[in-house]
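Our platform keeps sequence and structure together, in a single record for each protein. This encoding replaces a full spatial description with a residue-level series of whole-number codes. We quote a single record here, exactly as it is kept in our systems:
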Amino acid sequence: MGAVIEKKLRKLKEKQNSLSEVIKEIEQKNAYELRKIKEKKNRLIGQAINACLEKEGMVMLEKQDDLFILLDKYLRRKTDRELFGLNPLMVNKQSTSIEENNHQIYETIQE
């Protein structure tokens, strides 16, 4: 009877090791994806600040809301806006010159 229990225990430990490897792989993939998202956010924030500096000569970010206002002003791509929880832009066929300028600035920093 002891040999049967040992065999079962060995099989369970093999399954446990296999599952541990799968868990480790999933955790590594998740960490990689989170790192990619963080790097993209940092890059977009830097680009928005740089564009604002080039246009206005200075950036005033006293509160976190100020950063979101800046990002809302400069981010145009739906996926970029989603990263920061910003609403998608409304498509307006009669865009103003300011909106066109902001879009051109954004396109320039994306290149």
Summary: The mean pLDDT is 85.
